[in-house]
Design a protein that fits this description.
Layout (H helix, E strand, L loop, with lengths): L1 E5 L2 H18 L4 E4 L6 H14 L7 E4 L1 E3 L10 H8 L11 E2 L8 H14 L5 E4 L21 E4 L2 H6 L13 E4 L2 H5 L3 E6 L5 H9 L17 E6 L9 H9 L8
Parallel strand pairs: 1-10, 2-3, 2-6, 3-5, 6-9, 9-10
Antiparallel strand pairs: 4-8, 7-8
Helix pairs in contact: 1-2
Bound molecules: 2-phosphoglycolic acid.
């Protein structure tokens, strides 16, 4: 794992944007795996700015989002569809027909999940997968106890995850109980994983993900088995890492050709 610690989320999000932009520039037909939540907002803002000011071109891109709530129509203001259009897709030139988000209204969940997996494979696999992390260590909505080799499927949210998003649904009672999410096996197939985490609230999950044992109880820890995972953290999210000084040293001494 490569661990990049920045002073704050603004600078961390700039580094993350440079990593994604490099893939977009180097591979004009790249496949992007995208996440929602508060964490990637500044990353998306940077990508929108790079598109507007530097001509970063998404015309050949395909995207797959990690997850969507079950039973929530795409037009619902708190759906992940709405989030993605509001914060990214309306502002860049990614072709609409190559944007993929799980269908939370499907009447045949297993078939829709199989189709999603098939679509990722047909697109050639994900080149870079953007990830946040839950305070309980989930990535995507793979809650603790998720199989480390799971594929896209339905999951039941934990109470902690439901509380985390309660405000967006007018209180916990309004939060959907189920989601469709890429599995940990799906995420592990991405060529590169880029996990962002900001704030003290994520420090424990980050430390368990990086320095704890690989366990289904901390789904993010499966990334220890991924050959190309980059974590971009602010100081607070890195605050419980025992080897933080070493990670910072490694980053400072990177050869120029490896820098972002
Ligand atoms: P957040 O969510 O970015 O809103 O903190 C991350 C997650 O739950 O994966």
């Amino acid at each position: 794992m490569e661990i990049i610690i920045q002073p704050d989320s603004r600078q961390a999000s700039l580094v993350a944007a440079r990593i994604v932009a490099r893939t977009v520039r180097e591979k004009p037909l790249a496949v992007l795996g995208l996440a929602t939540g508060n964490t990637p907002l500044q990353l998306y803002r940077n990508l929108v700015r790079m598109h507007r000011d530097e001509g970063l071109d998404f015309a050949g891109m395909t995207s797959f989002n990690l997850d969507e709530y079950v039973g929530i129509p795409p037009a619902h203001p708190s759906s992940f569809h709405s989030y993605m259009w509001a914060h990214l897709f309306s502002h860049i030139n990614m072709p609409k027909e190559r944007i993929n988000i799980p269908d939370g209204l499907t009447t045949d969940v297993p078939a829709a999940c199989r189709k999603y997996e098939q679509a990722i494979r047909s697109a050639g696999g994900i080149d870079v997968q953007v990830l946040g992390i839950g305070s309980n260590g989930h990535i995507g909505f793979n809650e603790p106890s998720s199989s480390l080799s799971s594929r896209t499927r339905i999951k039941t949210l934990t109470e902690e995850s439901r509380l985390d998003v309660a405000a967006a649904f007018g209180g916990e009672e309004g939060v959907p109980t189920h989601v469709l999410t890429m599995g940990l096996g799906t995420i592990m197939d991405a060529r590169k994983c880029l996990l962002l985490a900001f704030g003290k609230k994520k420090a424990r999950a980050v430390a368990r993900t990086v320095e704890g044992p690989v366990t289904a109880m901390v789904p993010g820890s499966v990334l220890q088995l991924h050959p190309r995972t980059i974590l971009v953290l602010d100081k607070d999210a890195a605050s419980e890492l025992e080897m933080a000084d070493y990670y910072a040293w490694v980053h400072e001494h990177k050869p120029d050709w490896q820098k972002y």
